[in-house]
Mannose-1-phosphate guanylyltransferase (Paenibacillus algorifonticola), 954 residues
Amino acid sequence: MKLILLSGGSGKRLWPLSNDARSKQFLRILDGPGGLKESMVERVWRQLGETGLQRSSYIAAGKAQEEMIRVHAGLSVPLIIEPERRDTFPAIALSAVYLYSVAGVSLDEVVTILPVDPYVEDAFFHKITELEQVIHDSGCDMALMGVKPTFPSEKYGYIVPETGEPKLIINAAGDVTEAEASDAETGDARSYQLVRRFTEKPREEAAAELMQRGALWNCGVFAFKLGYLINLLIEKRIPIQYDELVNQYSTLVKTSFDYEVVERAKQVAVLPFDGCWKDLGTWNTLTEEMGTAELGEHITTELATDTHVINELGIPITILGIKNAIIAASPDGILVSDKASSPRIKEVLKNRDKRPMYEERRWGYYIVLDYLKYPDGSEVMTKRVCLDKGKNFSYHYHNNRCEVWTILSGEGEMMLDDQLRTVKAGDIINIPLGSRHCLLARTPMEMIEVMRGTQLVEEESVRLEADWKDIMQYCMI
Amino acid sequence: MKLILLSGGSGKRLWPLSNDARSKQFLRILDGPGGLKESMVERVWRQLGETGLQRSSYIAAGKAQEEMIRVHAGLSVPLIIEPERRDTFPAIALSAVYLYSVAGVSLDEVVTILPVDPYVEDAFFHKITELEQVIHDSGCDMALMGVKPTFPSEKYGYIVPETGEPKLIINAAGDVTEAEASDAETGDARSYQLVRRFTEKPREEAAAELMQRGALWNCGVFAFKLGYLINLLIEKRIPIQYDELVNQYSTLVKTSFDYEVVERAKQVAVLPFDGCWKDLGTWNTLTEEMGTAELGEHITTELATDTHVINELGIPITILGIKNAIIAASPDGILVSDKASSPRIKEVLKNRDKRPMYEERRWGYYIVLDYLKYPDGSEVMTKRVCLDKGKNFSYHYHNNRCEVWTILSGEGEMMLDDQLRTVKAGDIINIPLGSRHCLLARTPMEMIEVMRGTQLVEEESVRLEADWKDIMQYCMI
């Protein structure tokens, strides 16, 4: 069986810690082994390792997340990069085509799709391995995992199984018996049910009724034979060769896999999971799984009951007598919310599109310290940039800005317009508009970068296709 | 009559907006005329102007506040500068000696002391002018203003008048009659009472009883004949020549004027004031007088009832469903407090001594954007510095740090080690350790300053005794 982990999300729901460059799955705020904090991606990738599934797993993600996923799941993580964000159906189609035409996976092999960030116990992943057998045993097009609800949530989709009539439980030999139906109720590992229908986000009373009828939460885990989806793509005249599909990716319909595939499948099985599963998608659910109420430095709390504080800023936060609240501060902003209201953050911020003020990158990270826009349209952005040892910026230049770097610590090699030089703490480097430059850190380096120009928020630098070794050789000549 | 306004305060109670360099009286958060925001100092100084008292007024303040007071009350405000902070008795003694030996004020003239920051209506200042007559009429050593309490506060000191026996009301001719006692009760402008005793911060029940007995709040307004205090200083062998007292200032006992003088005076009169008076010393009292619930940029509030937000940071604040709270953010820190708990801030922060991250100065202001301390003890501080048009830094050098300036906007003249040059937006200026330098802004200027060295937080620059004109002339030669 192959596993495809979908890494999505624009990150508004956990603002201001998440942003367009750092979705919630990359926040290091969960308690990991050895007292270290880990992100959702780190946690799931670790669990996949512990349950022996990591070597069969791929992560599908947008281009913008590539660097972050490598930081959190390792440089060698197998990635399927979506050319652009287009919802789950295109992402899963691309993944299937990749497995088929690039990785050479057999059409008979079962593929399981899951989100990259469920908060679950290891048993969840053991259960996932059973989906393969469910597909083979049931002869269904598709097998889903259904989480046994613990309360009548209005946030989730429900999978309604066939009930009120004899349960269609099929044993390994293919016999259908009523006797074995009781296995499903006693929680036998191989028990599954057929799906009657799906219900999206019901009101609380309806959800309570669904629970009584044995409905399960849809946790976004779908298994199918690779051949099933490839055939479906052929029917839809979607290319099944990877390069071709990448080229046509922008023409795929923006729709969910649930809607486009699952709900239209002839017969779907569901495997109930009766264990810990949480969607840590909002501050109130996430703080339940934070081991400590305070994360970050310079936090003083007094009479603050059940209040969680996360401080990623360098300045102190003092909390006096605030109950049941979440206070989160990052270079992107400050959130002060009572826990019950915190799910509204996405809606409140839906029209705000601000540049991320903090980004983790392949080479390290940067924080925006200050941003100014003058009446004449010229802009200034001041950043602190941290480059890890042995890492380098790409060779690039800017059409719209000049930069001044003051090196604070460390040393490295810099190339500026074909001139190689050593730079170290105390050096001031003036990079005029259009100058090609890059930097390799021999030791960890920090610098203050003052950018002056226009469109500092929107415009990308122009990357030159050359890697560090080429440049070094070029300069050595 | 002369007025001495005492400007005190270290500024912890309105943290993080107030700091050691910007006490609460300098926060521009009150609604002023013409829709502009004004500080407590600006408001009181304006009211003194409107009531005709400004030209008889002096402000006594510590050296650290000199620049700020000139920014808020005008460059020509008469100042009495305390060489160091030593409580109210030394400050008032210095002020009296200044009036006597420098300003040549007659020993028969009445001097009235008041805080620089009471939040009052103009009637308060009209009432103050009556203190002169009370001193003359009553023959008392001292006349105080007493505010009629509106609730049994535990925070204030109470002035308990003589009651339960015939009131000693003395008319202009010096006759004591019971008939005129009724004037005191009908609120006649010239009515005053004699003081029986003082009670500091009583418990609520005791305060309620004091109110019933006609006790008044001590609002820190004391009037006396200059000669009375000068004689007292002579008795205490305290110098009555200004220069001499300045030299011996550090030997004066650190004690309050209430304790050292008022409570030991033979006979004290009190003039009741039955009008609006507020001590805006804590967030919960101050927010009552803020016209708007939101001050600053980038604030989003939803379901936040009776919550006040002040944002001096460049990053957005979002508030969801927080009631009756004060949220204040500045480069010094972030406070999230329910209003009832907000007076505790001073106590909670009492051991925290952090460098102010924002300072208004004679020449403009600066904001600390970033501060780092490396394991080897070296430090980096990054500031944005704004210099007003026509203003200049003093000529100075640093023994412990070098600086890199990136000029962002404007232009000016700079002197660096006896070399004069013009600097403008885009210039990068490297100021090595020990280099003498100053800058004069021809237009408003902004720059990013990166300081590298040690003791960046504590150490002052070394100021050279030269003003800009001298330097220009020196360089022109």
